[in-house]
Amino acid sequence: MHIRNALRAATAVTLLIGAAASAETITIATVNNGDMIRMQGYTDDFTAKTGHEVEWVTLEENVLRQRVTTDITTKGGAFDIMTIGMYETPIWGANGWLVPLNDLSAEYDAADILPAMAGGLSHDGTLYAAPFYGESSMIMYRTDLMEKAGLEMPDAPTWTFIREAAAAMTDRDNDINGICLRGKAGWGEGGALITAMSNSFGARWFDMDWNAQFDTQPWKDTLEFFVGMMNESGPAGYATNGFNENLSLFQQGKCGMWIDATVAASFVTNPEDSTVADKVGFALAPDNGLGKRANWLWAWALAIPAGTQKAEAAKAFIEWATSKEYIELVAANEGWANVPPGARISLYENPNYQAVPFAKMTLQSILSADPNNSTVEPSPYVGVQFAAIPEFAGIATDVSQEFSAVYAGQQTVDEALAKAQALTNDAMEAAGYR
Questions:
Q1: CA angle (342, 345, 349) in 5-degree steps
Q2: Average of pLDDT values for 409-434?
Q3: What region, left, alpha or beta, does residue 179 occupy, with left being phi > 0 and alpha being psi -120 to 50 degrees?
Q4: H/E run at residue 81
């Protein structure tokens, strides 16, 4: 008996030594959004369970995209895990730039990932990134200001109603803007918002022959409506406002409405951060009666670049950070409203989460976004707020800069659309699409 115990003790010591010897320090590039910042605070839990240490490189959204794209295309090897999304993942997976995630453990339960998220993060049926959280976009609005204006928010409003409500809620003397929307340049910042909005106006980036469509009436209607509404009821300097800037404005009580990522709901309803936490309602993104709403589909996901020497440690981190257990860890410490949303089926089946006020609207928004059929007229691309082709990021960043110049009063809508049309067609011709 003593010999057996001694053998067990020796085996345990051997395992501990082996774990220590194989412990790695992995470097993760991520975005400076609230859920990602929260995750960094729980890294000690991962280290305690695995022995692996983590170094974080936390960047603003546009900078993150630039850094990870440069690193992966040049095989720079700066990161063991990258935070990327539904745009990059299928393209980079097809290029062989990412480690497949088709061998995650049974306990991880990959089948529990929402199909909309798993599909957008796969290529040819192989998962190449695991969603940390998934999102669509929806309307977050001040219930008290809506009531004061004598209006009632429909569950599925039109853009006409939103513009009228924004004007009614605007109170310049008290620094309250009826609506806050992204105007910041960047394909995933202001570019995402205006593209999703354009879908509901009947616009599209390309026709079926890959010709740019910025010279069409639906794009003119989209941009003129946006600029008119924001000049009437938006904050000063909205041309430089992105997700984080608008979040801050809303939390300070300076926005009547905000149409943005569903993931923001936990932050605007958190009384520790938001001065209006108990006065927030939710509705679907607006439409124009054309059959498409102005909501997008996205996941911030964790992927492993193919060049890393630490793939197993990286997989261990991904399993930890995107697991059911991580969700329970956050819920136990910070409440169910603050867990990362939109990634797992089981979360929306959980009665604890079903009681969260924005859970139902978030899921409804995610399920209503169709990346395979996002435009009123047929289009040749997959994606709601982007076109899933390698050239899109560069083209759309340039286009978004032209649009932001309109928002800043530096050029007209017609001038911006003419430039967008020309630069998009030039880039598509150079890339061999036309």
A1: 105
A2: 97
A3: beta
A4: strand 81-84
Distance CA 211, CA 192 (A): 20
Question: Is residue 2 scored above 80 in pLDDT?
Answer: no
Per-residue pLDDT tens digits for 377-406: 999 998 999 999 999 999 999 999 999 999
Token look-up 């801050």 returns 248
Q: Lay out the sheet containing 280-284: strands in order across.
A: 177-180, 255-261, 137-142, 280-284
Domain covering 137-295+377-430: architecture = 3-Layer(aba) Sandwich (3.40)
**Between 3.30.9.10, 1.10.10.350, 3.40.630.30, 3.40.190.10, what CATH number should domain 22-135+298-354 receive?**
3.40.190.10
**pLDDT tens for each residue of 67-76:** 999 999 999 9
Count the neighbouring beta carbons within 10 Å of the beta carbon of residue 419. Answer: 18
Q: What is the pLDDT of residue 154?
A: 97
Give the list of residues 6+ apart from residue 315 with CB closer than 8 angstroms, or none: 99, 101, 104, 304
**137-295+377-430 and 22-135+298-354 share a CATH fold:** yes
Compute the distance between CA of residue 22 and CA of residue 281 in angstroms, rounded to an integer.
49
pLDDT in tens, 166-219: 999 999 999 999 999 999 999 999 999 999 999 999 999 999 999 999 999 999
| CB atoms near residue 247 (< 10 Å) | 24
**CA of residue 123 relative to chain centroid, distance:** 19
Question: Which residue(s) pair with 130 in the sheet?
Answer: 302
Q: Rounded CA gap, 108 and 89, in Å?
A: 20
Domain ranges across the chain: 22-135+298-354, 137-295+377-430
Between the CA of residue 361 and those of 39, 135, 137, 141, 260, what are the distances in Å? Answer: 24, 11, 10, 13, 13
The DSSP call for residue 132 is E
pLDDT at 10: 42
What pLDDT, on a 0 to 100 scale, did the predictor assign at position 434?
A: 81
Across the range 234-263, mean pLDDT stands at 97
Contact 263, 184 (CB under 8 A): no
| DSSP string across 176-197 | BEEEE----SSTTTHHHHHHHH
Residue owning tokens 């984080």: 244
- The structure's pTM equals 0.88
Query: DSSP 3-state assignment of 258?
Result: strand
**Token pair recorded at residue 286:** 């607006």
Average pLDDT, the chain: 94
CA distance to 168, 212, 280, 342, per residue, from 149 (Å): 6, 41, 15, 32
